[in-house]
């Protein structure tokens, strides 16, 4: 109940802020921070609660993005129908990859590497196939209307992505209190012990990867609707995978609010360094990378664990 | 489908490229086998070494092959320092932290290169850049042949260090049983840093052999990372013989894939092999256990 109240407060706060703001810069900031939060929360469902570290979450992101574009361009789908298809196909890809890798018991670094490889295979296929537009990518024509899921104001997009983030938060909160969530966390903490008490680890992990892919696919579809463009590198390249996992880990894995905090802080950091050092290409990312290393060195529990770290520090006897 | 000459020269090309891949993968597998770290900064380290070779050639006219005694110790020092100063401190033995730190290091290195050298792709001119050698029905560039010989020699030196020296014994002891090694008086932190140093030294040697027939830009390392991971997994994580054989195999797979499927789709062969190995033989061809 406490979680639900907090989620409702969060939605009301962001919604109210969006309605009150008129500056395009701030609206874009909120939109992109929410989008980054969606990807981070998606990764957190599988990585944080399931303990399965994916390095290739772009696989689901890119699938969602391409289905969203192709369904509208080649199949004549309405944008909202395309979104349903994008989420469904991303989930199907996740079920396939999950069934295959978990069936063979891949864990830890092996699971991480196999997801990376699947994302690369999809990238190469997207470059080589013709229905994906090859290396050039696909462009969505600009047709602003609610029916086309294209909005003249950022506020429309914020409403859309806020809806997804709230849904992801609700699913995460459900994981914390449900039987399925308890089984998933048991598998994360000790798979052998979980099996011994009758948890079907295979099914539980597939459930988690599918849930995670639903939100990642939605993120990809959202990307296409906002930028009206997708190419193989944007869709399946390592950048998106890295963005999702870094935000989740920096913020705090396996927590409800950590991924959102991580995504917001990293997005703010990215924007700040870009505005400060934008004239010198590369310098902004040098600062970004350095801060990332420093956060890991000095904030081991993730940003949402800072409070606990400080309390420990105060409680620790001096000597 | 293709006549023997084309096929032979394709395989030959693959083997020579594969030897350099093997050298890069040897560094990666050493770091994984001993420290159990998936080093995401490996590609960025290769990029740094390639720029070092490039600068030595263009600023001081030092031939890439003569740059070996400068670049290899330099990369070793970089690796030793990074492990002792940053990775070890930040990692605290937690996988996700080490992952983030090596990722952060690669972001910093790649963008420093972007800042200093801009995103231009550069290559060097040597007297032998255009020389070729005929082997049977195929011709191959001299630089690639030297790269093959050099990579094999460097791998042999590494294997000798690991099997015949006290350091090698210490490394193998730490890889097998960290706590036992510590009780025997081995400085584990030092061995970890030595491994990371040697891993990057391999990359330094690879860069010296690679550049005469290759190019460098800030993102050049990114292309090698998945290939090197594939080789390490194919050979068995931590297996040195595996990395050597895996490197040659992957070089040939890539070359033949390019021949039969074309430039862009050809790369897919590597990843199909990778996924198949992960699924059906995750311990790799030469790995001891899963």
- Strand order in the largest sheet of chain A: 1-2
Beta content of chain A: under 5%
The sequence of SSEs of chain B as H and E is HHHHEEHHHHHHHH
How many β-strand runs of chain B?
Answer: 2
Major sheet characteristics of chain B: 2 strands, antiparallel
Enter the CATH topology name of chain A: ABC transporter involved in vitamin B12 uptake, BtuC
Set down the secondary structure blueprint.
The complex is a heterodimer of chains A (319) and B (290).
Chain A: H1 2-20, H2 24-47, H3 58-73, H4 79-103, H5 108-128, E1 138-139, H6 154-177, H7 179-189, H8 191-196, H9 201-227, E2 229-230, H10 232-236, H11 238-251, H12 258-277, H13 283-298, H14 306-315
Antiparallel strand pairs in A: 1-2
Helix pairs in contact in A: 1-6, 2-6, 2-9, 2-11, 2-12, 3-4, 3-5, 3-9, 4-9, 6-7, 6-9, 7-9, 11-12, 12-13
Chain B: H1 4-35, H2 42-60, H3 68-91, H4 95-117, E1 132-135, E2 138-141, H5 142-164, H6 166-176, H7 178-183, H8 188-210, H9 220-235, H10 240-261, H11 263-266, H12 268-280
Antiparallel strand pairs in B: 1-2
Question: Any overview of this molecule?
Answer:
The complex is a heterodimer of chains A (319) and B (290). With 319 residues, chain A is mainly α. Chain A has one domain (2-315): ABC transporter involved in vitamin B12 uptake, BtuC. Chain A is built from 14 helices and two strands, in the order H-H-H-H-H-E-H-H-H-H-E-H-H-H-H-H. Chain A has helices spanning 2-20, 24-47, 58-73, 79-103, 108-128, 154-177, 179-189, 191-196, 201-227, 232-236, 238-251, 258-277, 283-298, 306-315, and strands spanning 138-139, 229-230. In chain A, strands 1-2 form a two-stranded antiparallel sheet. Chain A is globular and about 55 Å long. Chain A starts with a helix and ends with a helix. The mean pLDDT of chain A is 88. Chain B has 290 residues and is an all-alpha fold. Chain B has a domain at 15-124 and 140-218. In chain B, 74% of the residues lie in helices and 3% in strands. Chain B has helices at residues 4-35, 42-60, 68-91, 95-117, 142-164, 166-176, 178-183, 188-210, 220-235, 240-261, 263-266, 268-280; strands spanning 132-135, 138-141. In chain B, strand 1 (132-135) and strand 2 form a beta hairpin. In chain B, helix 5 (142-164) crosses helix 6 (166-176). In chain B, 53% of the residues are buried. The model of chain B has no long low-confidence stretch (mean pLDDT 84). The chains are: A mainly alpha (319), B mainly alpha (290). The interface between A and B is large, with 43 and 50 residues.
């Amino acid at each position: 109940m406490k979680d639900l109240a907090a989620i409702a407060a969060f939605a009301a706060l962001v919604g109210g802020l969006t309605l009150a703001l008129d500056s395009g810069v701030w609206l874009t900031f909120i939109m992109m921070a929410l989008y980054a939060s969606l990807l981070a929360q998606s990764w957190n469902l599988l990585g944080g609660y399931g303990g399965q570290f994916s390095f290739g979450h772009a696989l689901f992101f890119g699938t969602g993005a391409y289905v969203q574009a192709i369904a509208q361009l080649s199949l004549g789908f309405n944008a909202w129908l395309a979104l349903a298809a994008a989420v469904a196909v991303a989930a199907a890809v996740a079920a396939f990859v999950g069934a295959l890798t978990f069936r063979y018991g891949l864990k830890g670094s092996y699971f991480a590497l196999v997801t990376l490889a699947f994302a690369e295979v999809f990238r190469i296929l997207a470059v080589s196939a013709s229905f994906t537009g090859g290396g050039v990518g696909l462009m969505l024509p600009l047709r602003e209307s609610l029916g086309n899921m294209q909005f003249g104001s950022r506020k429309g997009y914020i409403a859309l992505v806020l809806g997804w983030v709230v849904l992801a938060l609700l699913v995460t909160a459900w994981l914390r209190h449900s039987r399925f969530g308890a089984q998933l966390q048991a598998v994360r903490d000790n798979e052998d012990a979980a099996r011994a008490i009758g948890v079907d680890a295979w099914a539980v992990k597939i459930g988690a990867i599918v849930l995670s892919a639903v939100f990642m696919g939605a993120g990809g579809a959202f990307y296409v609707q906002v930028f009206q463009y997708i190419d193989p590198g944007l869709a399946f390249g390592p950048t998106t995978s890295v963005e999702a996992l870094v935000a989740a880990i920096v913020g705090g894995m396996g927590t409800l609010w950590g991924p959102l905090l991580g995504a917001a802080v990293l997005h703010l950091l990215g924007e700040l360094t870009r505005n400060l050092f934008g004239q010198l290409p590369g310098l902004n990312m040098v600062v970004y990378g350095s801060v990332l290393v420093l956060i890991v060195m000095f904030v081991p529990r993730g940003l949402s664990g800072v409070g606990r770290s400080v309390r420990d520090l105060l409680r620790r006897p001096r000597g | 489908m293709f006549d023997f000459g084309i096929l032979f020269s394709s395989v030959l090309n693959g083997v020579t490229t594969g030897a350099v891949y093997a050298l890069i993968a040897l560094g990666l597998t050493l770091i994984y086998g001993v420290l159990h770290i998936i080093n995401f900064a490996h590609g960025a380290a290769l990029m740094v070494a390639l720029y070092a070779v490039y600068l030595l050639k263009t600023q001081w006219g030092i031939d890439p092959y003569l740059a070996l005694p400068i670049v290899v110790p330099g990369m070793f020092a970089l690796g030793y320092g990074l492990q002792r100063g940053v990775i070890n401190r930040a990692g605290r033995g937690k996988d996700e932290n080490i992952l983030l730190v090596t990722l952060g290091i690669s972001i910093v290195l790649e963008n420093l290169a972007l800042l200093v050298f801009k995103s231009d792709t550069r290559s060097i001119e040597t007297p032998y850049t255009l020389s070729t050698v005929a082997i049977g029905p195929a011709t191959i560039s001299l630089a690639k042949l030297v790269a093959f010989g050099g990579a094999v020699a460097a791998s042999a030196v590494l294997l000798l260090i690991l099997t015949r020296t006290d350091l090698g014994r210490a490394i193998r002891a730490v890889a097998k049983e960290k706590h036992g090694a510590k009780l025997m008086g081995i400085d584990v932190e030092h061995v970890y840093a030595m491994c990371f140093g040697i891993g990057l030294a391999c990359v330094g040697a690879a860069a010296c052999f690679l550049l005469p027939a290759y190019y460098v830009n800030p993102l050049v390392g990114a292309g090698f990372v998945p290939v090197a991971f594939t080789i390490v997994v194919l050979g068995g994580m931590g297996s040195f013989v595996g990395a050597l054989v895996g490197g040659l195999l992957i070089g040939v797979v890539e070359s033949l894939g390019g021949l039969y499927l074309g430039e862009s789709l050809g790369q897919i062969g590597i990843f199909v092999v990778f996924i198949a190995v992960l699924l059906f033989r995750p311990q790799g061809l030469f790995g001891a256990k899963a």
